[in-house]
Amino acid sequence: MAADTGLPPNWEIRHSRTKGIHYYYNNKTSESRWEPPTDADSAKLSSYMALNHSVPLVQPAPPPDQDKIRTSHLLVKSIESRRPSSWRSASISRSKAEAMQIILQHEARIRAGEISLGELAVSESDCSSARKGGDLGYFGRGEMQKEFEEAAFGLQVGEMSRVVETASGLHLIERTG
After folding, report:
1. Quick check: 65 pLDDT over 70?
2. Which range has the worst mean pLDDT, 32-36, 54-58, 124-128, 145-149?
3. Could you give the residue ranges of the DSSP H alpha helices within 41-158?
4. Which of its termini does the chain have fewer beta carbons within 10 Å around, N or C?
5. Is the pLDDT of residue 80 over 70?
6. Is the pTM of this model over 0.70?
7. Which of these is catalytic: 46, 78, 161, 168?
8. Known catalytic residue: 171?
9. Active site residue 73
10. Three-class secondary structure of residue 131 per DSSP
11. CA 108 to CA 120: how far, in whole Å?
């Protein structure tokens, strides 16, 4: 395994120009994927990505369509999530109860002012948006899962939700615009 990234031999991290996020590429087989290879060292990869591939938390001007909002989120998946894998781990095996304990610890750290949601999302979120500090960009009604949308549209700018459960997993959502 590459000592720096935690990726197995022949794998590298590349940047997608169309999606604006990183992906994994095997230069021997030409395989590319959004999720890390199954034999990657998740802890090393998470640390490497947090240090080398996170982006500054910049808030651009609001879009002309005022019916849209902007959010960032932190996602913790479990074995019961609709897709129990992430950029951090090719196979998530934690129970929903374990995921809840983890996200409640994250919530406590954020509410205590120890760390921001965006900073924590970079290394701890199971969503690929972690690479952007959890930023999901602008979206309108009908574009997200119902539970996520209801919570997000119920927040004021700068406010963070309590834990929100969707088919994807458990979220903390912060309205940023």
Report:
1. no
2. 54-58
3. 42-52, 96-111, 117-124, 146-153
4. N
5. yes
6. no
7. 168
8. yes
9. yes
10. helix
11. 12
Q: Residue 2 — very low, low, confident or very high, per pLDDT cuts 50/70/90?
A: very low
- As given in the structure block, the two tokens for residue 129 are 């948006």
Which listed residue (127, 128, 129, 156) is catalytic? 127
Name residue 91's amino acid: S
Predicted confidence (pLDDT) at residue 114 exceeds the cutoff of 90: yes
Q: From CA 71, how far away is CA 89, in angstroms rounded?
A: 24
CB 172 within 8 A of CB 74: yes
Name the catalytic one among 54, 86, 129, 171.
171
Strands of the sheet containing 32-33, edge to edge, are 11-15, 22-26, 32-33
Residue 145 annotated in active site: yes
100 phi, psi to nearest 5 deg? -65, -40
Sort residue 138 into left (φ over 0), alpha (ψ -120 to 50) or beta: beta
Residue tagged active-site, from 54, 73, 86, 106 = 73
Which amino acid, 118? G
Torsion angles phi and psi, residue 22, rounded to 5: -90, 155
